[in-house]
């Protein structure tokens, strides 16, 4: 059994999933579990298996008004940073309207007449929609010991009636950072379309991620409807991507020198940390600049969001690799197919690809530790599968089982740890095991890593990208900065960047989805 505890107000949850809230009374078996947990943390043992989640230590649950205090604090945290906070800026009526009659209106203001297409600043969407009756319910997320229902509202995304920029004064920049992701071009395209709809004419792309801000050999890329019209038909990014890059103050110098006052930053956790730092630096310098993030990651590891764009496509693309592994395994005598999928710290791609294919016998993800050897190990189960049904297919996420491998200590240009290859390791161990027990096994290893993210967005991602790209522009014109845009409970919202990057979003091993995956594969507990 796994457990978690509260340290300095952060509720930590072990990857085995039983949620322990810091406010639970520490008696009986709870107490010894709590102590063991602390010992493990103190010795640094398996520290990487622990995830931090939002927990508010200052809430006194004995106070009859604790919910109100919690909500006040929540509202404060999720309040969207605005240009008004630092500058004396006045709004003007929006230039965005879909009520225009001509082919293109001139950007001097929306046409007269009533149009109910605007979102009010006070509109909200509910962040959590399940009322868990017990902390022991599968996937329960509780705030207090009674697991009470507490409404948590976040800001609705979309066009506002009042805007804080004159379109002709806007110079908008778009930059794509980190690794590739299906849908980057779709988002770029929609940002350009929407900016033009407001009347913006100066739109540029920064080439090759944050790097493009300082490398003189990399000129700005002028963007317009004409330039981006068909870019969604291809994978990749029209602008190029990169990891690493200049420091924040150099980036802000560059933004200032270029006269950019809206910057749309597409990327994952690292990129968003950068975007937030850029926003803070712009604030410090009292610059009228809107910094808007659009979360991009096939890994789906951004907190609070239903999913990030590119994830669906990656899962769909992974089906080809899994199907090939399945065919190979089923066509060989004692065939074993092994597929490694992306997922540095989160196993969403592996879990969803396993679930959707229906062809996987063993799914291994970073959030759930496993052993290869021993009576409960993966190899023993494989042996059982070979003896009983003659073949097996395994899907492993790249970040799974890293504790079984020698660490390289290498990092990439962004400082991300370069992972050791779990796929190769498992392949070698399977071969070694079956040779040792004298049973033939034909192992076929498929690593489709870059194939699942270099492709064009599928239909569902294309729609998500469309909405996110458009909302990013609406957020900038509404005067927000330091925000990102996402989908929560099927509704599109704006969230302050820090709230979505405190840790990578992980698969909850106590969630129904992981349980469904286990039901589907039929795999036992490998621990
Ligand atoms: N904490 C940070 N503060 C400022 N900038 C950062 C930070 N972390 C990363 N960056 C910058 O953000 C960019 C992208 O980071 P990273 O390579 O980690 O990709 P990512 O955005 O997390 O996307 P992916 O999902 O592909 O990993 C890099 O240029 C990196 O220098
Ligand atoms: O080889 P690159 O470009 O660093 O990207 C690999 C990484 O990209 C990710 O998909 C995140 O975008 C990780 O799962 C993976 O480790
Ligand atoms: Mg990252």
From TrEMBL:
How is the protein's activity regulated, according to its record?
Allosterically activated by AMP.
Q: Where does Mg(2+) bind?
A: 269
Domain Phosphofructokinase residue range list = 172-474
Query: Chief localization class?
Result: cytoplasm
Q: Which GO terms describe its molecular function?
A: 6-phosphofructokinase activity; ATP binding; metal ion binding
Instruction: State if Nucleotide-binding is listed as a keyword.
Output: yes
Protein role: Catalyzes the phosphorylation of D-fructose 6-phosphate to fructose 1,6-bisphosphate by ATP, the first committing step of glycolysis.
Protein name as catalogued: ATP-dependent 6-phosphofructokinase
């Amino acid at each position: 059994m796994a457990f978690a505890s509260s340290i300095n107000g952060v509720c930590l949850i072990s990857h085995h999933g039983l949620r322990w809230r810091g406010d639970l009374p520490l008696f009986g078996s709870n107490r010894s579990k709590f102590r063991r947990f602390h010992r493990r943390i103190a010795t640094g043992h398996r520290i990487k298996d622990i995830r931090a989640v939002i927990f508010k230590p200052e809430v006194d649950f004995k106070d009859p008004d604790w919910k109100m205090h919690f909500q006040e604090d929540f509202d404060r945290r999720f309040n969207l940073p605005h240009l008004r906070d630092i500058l004396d800026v006045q709004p003007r009526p929006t230039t965005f309207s879909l009520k225009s009659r001509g082919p293109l209106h001139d950007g001097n203001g929306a046409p007269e007449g009533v149009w109910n297409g605007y979102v009010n600043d006070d509109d909200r969407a509910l962040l959590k929609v399940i009322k868990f009756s017990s902390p022991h319910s599968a996937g329960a997320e509780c705030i207090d010991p009674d697991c009470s229902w507490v409404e948590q509202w976040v800001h609705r995304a979309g066009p506002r009636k009042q805007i804080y920029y004159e379109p002709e004064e806007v110079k908008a920049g778009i930059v794509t950072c980190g690794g590739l992701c299906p849908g980057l071009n779709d988002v770029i395209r929609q940002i350009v379309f929407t900016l033009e709809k407001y009347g913006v004419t100066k739109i540029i792309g920064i080439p090759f991620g944050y790097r493009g801000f300082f490398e003189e050999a990399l000129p700005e890329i002028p963007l317009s409807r004409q330039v981006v019209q068909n870019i969604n038909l291809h994978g990749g990014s029209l602008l190029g991507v990169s990891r690493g890059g200049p420091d924040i103050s150099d980036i802000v110098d560059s933004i200032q020198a270029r006269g950019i006052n809206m910057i749309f930053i597409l990327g994952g956790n690292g990129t968003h940390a950068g975007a937030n730092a850029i926003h803070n630096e712009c604030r410090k310098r009292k610059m009228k600049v809107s910094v808007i993030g659009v979360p991009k990651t096939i890994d789906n590891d951004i907190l609070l969001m239903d999913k990030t764009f590119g994830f669906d496509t990656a899962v769909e693309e992974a089906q080809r690799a899994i199907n090939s592994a399945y065919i190979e395994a089923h066509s060989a005598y004692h065939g074993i197919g092994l597929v490694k999928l992306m997922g540095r710290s989160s196993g969403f791609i592996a879990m969803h690809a396993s679930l959707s294919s229906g062809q996987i016998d063993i799914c291994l993800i970073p959030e759930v530790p496993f052993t290869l050897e021993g009576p409960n190990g993966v190899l023993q189960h494989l042996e059982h599968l070979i003896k009983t049904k003659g073949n097996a297919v395994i899907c492993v996420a790249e970040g799974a089982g890293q504790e079984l491998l020698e660490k390289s200590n290498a990092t990439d240009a962004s400082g991300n740890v370069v992972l050791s290859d779990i796929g190769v390791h498992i392949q070698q161990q399977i071969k070694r095991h079956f040779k040792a027990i004298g049973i033939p096994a034909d192992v076929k290893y498929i690593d489709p890593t870059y194939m699942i993210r270099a492709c064009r967005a599928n239909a569902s991602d294309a729609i998500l990208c469309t909405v996110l790209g458009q909302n990013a522009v609406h957020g900038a014109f509404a005067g927000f900065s330091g925000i990102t845009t996402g989908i929560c409970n099927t509704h599109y919202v704006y969230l302050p960047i820090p709230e979505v990057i405190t840790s990578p979003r992980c698969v909850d091993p106590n969630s129904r989805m992981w349980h469904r995956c286990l039901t589907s594969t039929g795999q036992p507990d490998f621990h």
